[in-house]
Specification:
The protein has 17 helices and 17 strands. By secondary structure, it is of the alpha+beta class. It has two domains: 15-174 and 469-486, no CATH class; 176-311 and 368-455, no CATH class. Helix 10 (293-301) packs across helix 15.
Length: 486
């Protein structure tokens, strides 16, 4: 079998895989056609339910029912349109509420989607087990997968509904999340099969800090939803998945540990794939990032300006780029660990081939004596929060200026012509937060990878309609005859 055939076969296999996403519950109808579709399905639901229901719902309960049906319907429709026939969502059955569940999930939610399945609007599959970070705390409960039925897609085609007919209500799901590790709760022996720490969500009461952080994240998500972000050359990336959350850690109720942003489609893409497939404001992207972020923040934390030059090359014994990268891993491990390390961090093998772990630890401390004062105290979690505060401020500032920009932990993706401007803004925000000067650089773009299986060059942007064009679309479709299901 030739190489092209192998790649094509592999690509077909990937595309045939069922894509399952957790239920988000934030989509609501924006246009009249979408509202009409939801109203029609709600009417069908109530008509079939009425003979079996003992009493009518009050106004509040009815509004909750409509919101739940709307969220289920619109979410399964968009995932099928954007991910293909096998796209579906999963939802965890539960008998208790949590701030991490969408507000559209009520104790009646399972009855709602089962009834929508019975009426033929959804395809419902029961009994799949999931063990994700945020349902682990809910008892590893049974999950159900929901997909748009052919009957529903026929109605969608009649009303000509797509993502432009919806908008996201970010208040319907929690964007400020706090987790802790099983290690902290149960001891060192608890690990997942992969050897990593098991994490679980921590419920919390709102404080002025969490309220302010949520307001900022909702503003960022609202601006991201309408930003000019496009995917070119591939259909395997859904450029509409832009919602970000802030993930705090260590069970710290002061919310001053970790706090990085996660959730956007670009976060887990490789640098090469971002460069090849993402366009911002119609331009190729630049990646602007902070250099040696944690060591520099460490010096600033103690009220000192870091020494000039690269913070890793200055360590005795560092002779190659691979050794520098390994030293970065070693330094970060020393900052994040809450005890003295028994073994060497994973990814430092190139160093151990030259000297043992203790030699390198001594060399690091000699170059950066401040590390000796905080080694084993887990200060890295606090430094990461400082990084996240700076990056959140940068992200909001760029998006409010009208620029399409995507944050990636300590880096920012921006239109290539705006790289120097973004670099300046990142330097300003760093200085504003720390009182010191940071190191910011525009990364060299990676060499593009050549693809055989996917040769599409179609641009797939998120289209944002103005009021006039939206009205035109509504006028065309509202004049269509009422859709009837047989």
């Amino acid at each position: 079998m030739g190489l092209a055939m192998v790649v094509q076969t592999f690509g077909d296999w990937i595309l045939s895989m069922e894509i399952e996403l957790p239920f988000d519950g934030c989509l609501i109808a924006k246009t009249k056609p979408a509202s009409d579709l939801v109203a029609y399905i709600v009417a069908d639901y109530l008509t079939n339910e009425e003979p079996r229901r003992a009493r009518r719902r009050n106004t509040r309960a009815h509004a909750q029912l409509v919101a739940t049906i709307q969220a289920f319907i619109l979410e399964v429709v968009l995932i099928r349109q954007e991910e293909g026939h096998d796209g579906c969502i999963f939802i965890t059955a539960n008998n208790r509420m949590s701030r991490y569940l969408p507000k559209t999930i009520t104790l009646e939610a399972d009855k709602v989607y089962k009834e929508l399945g019975r009426l033929g609007w959804l395809t419902v599959k029961l009994g799949t087990k999931y063990s994700t970070e945020f349902n682990a705390a809910l008892g590893n409960l049974k999950a159900t997968t929901l997909a748009a039925s052919d009957k529903l897609m026929a109605a969608v085609e009649h009303y000509r509904i797509d993502r432009r007919d919806t908008r996201t209500d970010f208040t319907n799901s929690e964007v400020i999340r706090l987790s802790d590790t099983e290690k902290n709760r149960l001891g060192d022996a608890v690990r997942t099969k992969a050897g990593t720490k098991t994490t679980y969500p921590v419920e919390y009461d709102d404080t002025p800090a969490t309220i302010a952080a949520r307001k900022t994240m909702n503003a960022i998500n609202g601006l991201l939803e309408t930003a000019n972000v496009a995917i070119v050359g591939t259909r395997s990336v859904n450029g509409n998945r832009r919602k970000l959350i802030r993930q705090y850690g260590c069970g710290d109720l002061s919310f001053t540990k970790q706090g990085r942003m996660f959730g956007g489609f670009w976060i887990n893409m490789s640098k090469r794939d971002r460069q090849q497939f993402i366009r911002l404001d119609g331009e190729e992207i630049a990646e602007v990032d902070f250099g040696q972020m944690y060591p520099r923040l460490l010096y600033n934390h103690f009220g000192q300006q870091p020494p000039d030059g690269d913070m890793y090359w200055c360590i005795d014994g560092c002779e190659t780029e691979d050794m520098r990268d390994a030293l970065k891993v070693f330094v970060n491990a020393m900052l994040f660990t809450d005890k003295f390390m028994v073994g060497a961090p994973k990814g430092t093998e190139v160093l151990l081939a030259v000297h043992d772990k203790e030699w390198w630890r001594s060399a690091i401390v000699e170059a950066h004596p401040l590390l000796a004062e905080c080694y084993g105290e887990g200060l890295g979690h606090d430094l990461q929060w400082q990084e996240s505060q700076i990056m959140t401020a940068v992200t909001l500032r760029l998006l409010e200026s009208g620029m399409a920009a995507l944050p990636v932990h300590d880096a920012m993706l921006c239109p290539k012509p705006k790289g120097n401007l973004v670099k300046t803004i990142m330097e300003e925000e760093y200085h504003k937060f720390t009182g010191f000067h940071g190191s910011v650089k525009i990364a060299n773009p990676p060499t593009p990878r050549q693809f055989i299986a996917d040769t599409s060059t179609e641009v797939l942007p998120l289209v944002t309609l103005g009021p006039a064009s939206q009205g035109d679309r509504e006028g065309i479709r509202s004049s269509s005859p009422r859709f009837t299901v047989k």
